[in-house]
Amino acid sequence: AERGDPLWTALIVDYLGHQSLDVREAALIALHRLAAPGCADIVASISLRMEDADIGGRKALLMALQQLSPPGNQPAILEAARRLTDSSIEVRKMALRVLGALAEDLPPNLERVLESSLQDSHASVRKTAVSALEKLAAKNPWLRSLLLSRLEDPAPCVQCAAILAAGRICDLDDEASANTLAACLDSNEKMCEAAAQQSLGWLLQRGSRAPLPALARLLWHGNEKVRESANLVLSRLPPR
């Protein structure tokens, strides 16, 4: 078969929905060797087979979409976006990863579905949404605000992901987010406390002074551990 042959490409895409994991992996390897990157026929074939595939098949099809489509490929991005409301938790998470990898800017008309992803009833989906959408949130104030709302998520794993993202993407003069991060130094969850130390350190190193008032107050906190955490963060303040 010649590279880019549409008939062979369509035939191999069929096997991405196979019940056997080994067969799906072999089909993905074959597509890498045969398909032309970004080929419209591949995206069309994947979209056509998505509805009839089982959960494993839909995940494999999305993985192929990510690996075989160049960044910014709109048909691939739209297909991933359609899977954000999939009935399967695992498929929704894979769709978020694909969207985050391929989209270079916030796709139009996706505000409601992205908001739903960040408010999904399953913590693992919300955590994936925070991580996958961070790059887009850095460029889009609306999405950044929505993502930073997860700083107060009830699930520690989601809150931790949002804390780390905040240190990389929040505005340098965002005092509200800085205060929330500083409050996390008093968290009962060790991973959230450690993430807050890291995130506040990143903010200071980026040149932000927004965390300084809250950190100064924490130096007088009644809990010695919190005072030590605040001191540790302030030690990362770059010299003027």
From TrEMBL:
Alphabetical list of SMART domains matching this protein: EZ_HEAT
Keyword DNA-binding carried by entry: no
InterPro entries for this protein: ARM-like, ARM-type_fold, HEAT, PBS_lyase_HEAT
Domain of life of the source: Eukaryota
Pfam families, per database record: HEAT (PF02985), HEAT_2 (PF13646)
Keywords: Repeat
Descriptive protein name: HEAT repeat domain-containing protein
Species per Swiss-Prot/TrEMBL record: Symbiodinium necroappetens
